[in-house]
Amino acid sequence: MSPMKPEAALRDALPPPGSPRFWRALDELAADPAGRGLLAAAWPSLAELEPALDRRGFLRLLGASLAFAGLAACSGPPPEHIVPQVGRNGRTAPRSARYATAMATGADVVGVVVTLQDGRPVKVDGNPRHPATLGGSDACMQAAVLDLWDPARSDAPRRNGTPSSWAAFEDDAAALRRQFGERGEGLRILSGAVVSPTLARQRDALLARYPAARWHVHDPLRGRPADVWPDLSKARTIVALDADPLGGFPGHVRHARDFAAMRGDTNAMPRLYAIEPAPSLTGRNADHAWPVAASALPAIAAGLASALGVPADVPDLDALTRERIATIAEDLHTNAGASLVLAGPFQPSAVHDLVRAMNAVLGNEGTTIHDVPSHDTGRPLGELLEDMRAGHVETLVLLETNPVYTAPGFADAMRTVPRSVHLGRYRDETAEAAHWHLPALHPFETWSDLRTLDGVASIVQPVLAPLADARSVHDVLDLLTGAMTDDPLKRVRATWPDLDDEAWTAALRDGVVARPADAVGAAMAARKSRPGSTPLAAMAAPTGKDALELVFRPDEFLWDGRHAGNAWLQELPRPVTSLTWGNAAWISPALAEQRRLRDGDMVRLAIDGRHVEAPVLVVPGQAANSITVTFGYGRRSGIADGLGYDAYALRERDDTWHVHSVELTPLGRRTTLAWTQTHQDMGRRDIVRAGTPAHPPHGSDKTPASFYPDAPRGEYRWGMGIDLNACIGCNACTIACQAENNIPVVGKEEVARGRRMHWIRVDRYHEGPAAAPRTYHQPVPCMHCEHAPCEVVCPVEATVHDSEGLNLQVYNRCVGTRFCSNNCPYKVRRFNFLQYADLASESLKAMRNPEVTVRSRGVMEKCTYCVQRIERAHIDADREGRRIGTGEVTTACQDACPTRAIVFGDLGDDASDVARAHRSPRRYVLLEELNTRPRTAYLGALRNPNPAWRDA
Q: Residue 534: is its pLDDT beyond 50?
């Protein structure tokens, strides 16, 4: 890539009039010849004959955590009675079952449905009956099935690093109970967020049994505890102050659904302002993204509060900032009672106090914002560190948390503790440092319960028996108190004595514990605040004009590092950066020009004697003098070994989210980033269409004549519609497709060569200046063209067209000429350059979808519109002598999408969602000038900018 252009050139070098105004990379925006050359290199060179890794290393990486699958043959269903969900017609498919359960990432609880084929979990989707998901999902939910089969999971207890047994630990636990006596002096428990009612009951029982013991909570991503629940379905004006309700916020799947539903109403389209130091998923979908330094954000919050009539000490602000604050305040006043101001968990309490007062002044409380009971955070980690260093801790029990990796100074303090016990699914950094390591069950293997922040409870039911010699956190707590039970189901049922057998069965079937209406109202009741009643803390001083600040953020998929061993998530391009298999230090285009840095340049970041070496990535929309580092990398085991840098090394405390001064030193060397932003480029043509409610993007309903004959019409005309106005770019569709269609991972080196195998990709396009662009996301599957250019060039007819409009790939005919991919203008075909999938190992069969062929080296593959689901519907309909019903066939990407941006069905069924989408005035197809007549159509995007907003 060529050296970064001056910021002025990046700002001003927009496409000439009459050409597309959207851009993907900064070199493209600056009309750089070298950048155009990079974009023109659409296809990689011929693959080497042998992979760079040996076979063992290759399978360890590309097997993608599947070897545990072989244990399924020895496992089977759990011994207790579990209750499946049933389909629309009251039945489940033969050999298939769907079970509702729940899972949590930190304090964020979601309801899921696990699909089993022949008793084996193969797919995870959102539970349509759970209000936190409504059937939608995110990438981590979709990848949970891979965590279940991960061969890196711990499979037996270990004592001082050597294999041991549960019987040996039970003997030690009995000795510990005698030592604890009546008070439990010196006993400390450290866990993540306690969101299980059963776990909370056990915690209370343990603290009552041992009153001198203490329970601490450590969540490295917690920030300020959430005590409000936004309702985006009622908000016309939304202001996100370093908040990410669409991405990292608890309940983000539901918030994304509500936001997309509001955005779909062009008569009442909301307007979203995102004020943040680092781009987020919410910022990428904002009508106005305003990059500001993290240290300056409290002052902007104070200025906005003052403009709304909330007493606040406002520091001196420049003219542009004052003008923008006035514009936002007027918009909020206009929609008082239907507006929303949100502060992110990384902001100080002073900002949250201001936000609460602003929502009260605007009359939003009880409509767009609701108070929820404050989450029980337990004693802070800092208190535990002090006790360990002072020698007050005799026994430390760590429950499914990894503070040696995530908490600064914890490893040194832990060495002073005589006895430590770690429970976790992996032999991670904390497991290696503990005296006892105990393997933990996956949520799909155990009984438990979970409760969302807004009070919705679910029963967690196991969908298969444990794959390894592991136990749950409930089992370990019972060992510590001596209250062991042989029936984990009874332990959970004891938490819910008000549920009779019928209500219990309904809770298992639906995935939600029914609550009376008054309980729901109490959980969501708003406490009316008096404006200004909460004293405001002193605002942080902004960083100096030329000083650099450092901002800490979780990785978009690995979070705090808990998903670092999941190869699907490692290879999934990040929504903000398109980066895979590693992290980078995000810098702004202005800072890149000032320091003469390019993507991949290595730099040293230093703060008070702590430092890391990291590659830089120039990110449009990053605040000018801010550098963002992301957690989750710098691990030293498994597939994450050697990937990225450890951002925790720069963190002084576990509640530090930005630092006012950091030193950046170029190191004079470079590294290769597995960055996909410029891959599969379709050229600077009319790819993305966007407009406003007043001036919507133009559609196209004309079908030019063609010399090619039309294919014979079958009983159905399958097609897809993708609404760019609803897509937020979360990439859940990509992982869902990977799980459904047995798509392998290829590794960092192959991704860097442009060889990733995802059948549906999500392209990002920017509009406007690089400093604060507006971003659009576009999912791109196979277009299933009626006049498909790939079909006419295949010499062996491996690419064929069926009577229902599907463009199909016959794998056993393919000889790998790649003529079809060369002739596909949409860049959606994927070639197995190497043997990415292991065809020999029996252990890999358990997690794979048995209805989808596993491809081999030298074979082309692509999106099939989930033809296996279509065929399953055909079989059911034929057996019952009927047509396939409206909405009976859904694709994996459609099921996963949290915003319902993707619809699929029979275009000949006028009542279907896809037929309505194809009749929309915003409908268009990609590259329509080629007259390929795609069955996949797009609906142009809409944004709702404020005419009074002044750009920089």
A: no
Across the chain, mean pLDDT equals 87
CATH for the stretch 549-675: 2.40.40.20
Q: Does residue 103 contact residue 144 with C-beta atoms inside 8 Å?
A: yes
As a whole number of angstroms, the distance between CA 275 and CA 294 comes to 10
Residue 379 DSSP one-character state: B
Interhelix angle 297-307/349-362, rounded to 10 degrees, is 20
Average pLDDT over residues 351-380: 89
Q: Which two tokens stand for residue 546?
A: 């030329």
Q: Superfamily assignment of 228-371 in CATH?
A: Dimethylsulfoxide Reductase, domain 2 (3.40.228.10)
User: For residues 602 and 523, is the Cβ–Cβ distance under 8 A?
Assistant: no
Percent of the chain at pLDDT > 90 equals 71
Pairing of strands 674-675, 579-580: antiparallel
HSE (CB half, 13 Å, CA atoms) of 537?
11
What does pTM read for this prediction?
0.90
Q: What is the pLDDT of residue 431?
A: 95
The rounded distance, in Å, linking the Cα atoms of 580 and 490 is 44
The whole-number pLDDT of residue 1 equals 39
- Cα 952 to Cα 319: distance, rounded to the nearest angstrom: 11
Residue 412 CA to residue 345 CA, distance in Å, equals 28
Give per-residue pLDDT as tens, 114-156.
999 988 999 999 999 999 999 999 999 999 999 998 888 998 9
User: Are 112 and 126 spatial neighbours (Cβ–Cβ below 8 Å)?
Assistant: yes
Fold held by 42-46+678-687+696-701+711-942: Alpha-Beta Plaits (3.30.70)
Residue 29, classed as helix, strand or coil, is: helix
Higher per-residue pLDDT: 813 or 951: 813
Categorize the per-residue pLDDT at 103 as very low, low, confident or very high, splitting at 50, 70 and 90: very high
| Residue 605 pLDDT > 90 | yes
Delimit the domains of the chain by residue range.
42-46+678-687+696-701+711-942, 228-371, 549-675
